[in-house]
Amino acid sequence: MMRLWVSFGLLAGLAVCAALIANLPGQVHFSVSGYLVETRTSVLAGAGFALLLACLALIGLAQFLWRLPARLKAERRETQRRDGEAALAKALMALARGDTQAAKSATQAARQKLPHQALPRLMAAQAALLDGRPADAEADYRAMLKPNTTLNQKVLGLEGLYYMARGARVSDMETAGTYALQVLQLAPKTLWALDGLMAMAVQIGDWPAAQDWLRQWSKALKGKAKRAEVRRRRAVLSMAEAQSLLATDDPADQLAAQKKAEQAVKQEPAFIAASALAARLQARGGNLKKARGTLRQAWTRAPHPEIAEAWLDCYADQPLATRQRAATSFIGKHKAHEEAHILRARIALEGERWLLAKTLLAPHANLKEDNLAENNLAKNKATRRLCLLMAQAEEGLGELQNAQHWRERARRAPAEAGWMSAGLRLDSWQALCPVTGKLDGVSWQSPLEASISQANLAAPKGSAPLALS
Question: Is pTM beyond 0.90 here?
Answer without folding.
Answer: no
